[in-house]
Amino acid sequence: MANYLVTGGAGFIGSHLCGRLVQDGHSVRVLDNLWSGKRDNLSHVTGQVDFVEADLRDDAAVAAAVADIDFVLHHGAIASVQFSVEQPLVEQQVNAVGTLKVLDAARSAGVKRVVFAASAAAYGTDPATPKIESMAAVPSSPYGLSKVTGEHYCRIYSEVFGLETVCLRYFNIFGPRQDPSSPYSGVISIFARRMLAGEPPTVFGDGQQSRDFAYVDNVVEANLLACQVSSAAGEVYNIGCERSISVNQLIGHLNDALGTSFDAVYEDPRPGDVRVSLADISRARQGLGYRPVVGFEEGLRNTVTWMRSEIERE
After folding, report:
1. Residues 6 or more apart from 154 whose CB is under 8 A from it?
2. Once rounded to an integer, what is the mean pLDDT over residues 163-179?
3. Which residues does 169 contact at the CB level (< 8 Å), separation at least 6?
4. Which one of the listed residues 143, 170, 215, 290 is annotated catalytic?
5. 123 DSSP assignment
6. What are the structural domain ranges in the chain?
7. Residue 43 CB: number of other CB atoms within 10 A?
8. pLDDT for 274
9. Helices of type H across the chain
10. SS3 state at 232
11. What is the pLDDT, as a whole number, of residue 57?
């Protein structure tokens, strides 16, 4: 068994990682400032994780958090294109500089490996599909830039300082605990919440923009593999499902899952949004042994079931 630090561990993806790590018998520490994360997200592991409420920009807190840690799963970030357009300086301070602080503290503490939550936003608006890791990184938003910067910091800390790093470029992740009340949340949780409330979903653009939606359990598997596979050190991998679904198609799937018949309300597109996103995951298959363990339809059913239960609790 190993000692893990999950930055952003009270968030959507981070809390799922914590649950799996605890289930597998590992020791888990969480670093989260609760800006978007919630303590309730960790209710399933109450008393089983060491929770540190602190900010990535706090040098002393980060240094203390990585002490005696074997693996860092770095998911602390402001994960929003929209927010990054509104407040680019804050986005860079948290995502880019925060990642640098985590890497430097991990190097000093002798951490075995850092797994970095990178993003498909690295590919920007490049129309070529599917997205392959060898493509040039041309981010079209400050958020994408912050994630690409994090990748470069990982590469440098591997090559210059010998700190093992693995970068996982997430496509569109969804599942339980993704906050539907936040305007910066994923489109599935926002749409499902509105439709459950009897309101039509709002689409920015024509709805033909498409995304590779990956259920959160697939990301958890990818992180575990990224810690276990020795040859993965220094690599960058796409994590998706190799299936691109348009926003209009998504609304149809949600109508089926919810038993509703909503039409979308269309508004002007948002700056920085990507038109088509589809992952080529052959490199992750070969290098990590990664494969999606939960398909889109099953994941959507799981998410809708969770959202219904949350509404009943309110």
Report:
1. 99, 103, 114, 116, 165, 166, 167
2. 96
3. 118, 119, 120, 122, 133, 236, 237, 238, 239, 279
4. 143
5. G
6. 3-174+215-241+278-294
7. 9
8. 72
9. 12-23, 59-65, 81-86, 88-91, 98-109, 142-161, 187-196, 216-228, 247-258, 282-288, 296-313
10. helix
11. 96
Q: Does domain 3-174+215-241+278-294 have CATH number 3.40.50.720?
A: yes
- At residue 255, the 3 state secondary structure works out as helix
- CA-closest candidate to residue 132, choices 256, 29, 237: 237
Rounded to whole angstroms, how far apart are CA atoms 202 and 265?
Answer: 5
Sign of CA dihedral 161, 166, 171, 175: negative
Is residue 297 within 8 A of residue 215, CB to CB? The reply is no
- How does the average pLDDT of the chain come out, rounded? 95
Closest CA to 199 of 157, 156, 258, 151: 258
Active site residue 170: no
> Contact at 8 Å (CB) between 31 and 72?
no
Share of the chain above pLDDT 70, in %: 98
107-149 residue pLDDT tens: 999 999 999 999 999 999 888 999 999 999 999 999 999 999 9
276 torsion bin: left (phi>0), alpha (psi -120 to 50), beta (else) = beta
- Is the model's pLDDT at 273 over the cut of 80? no
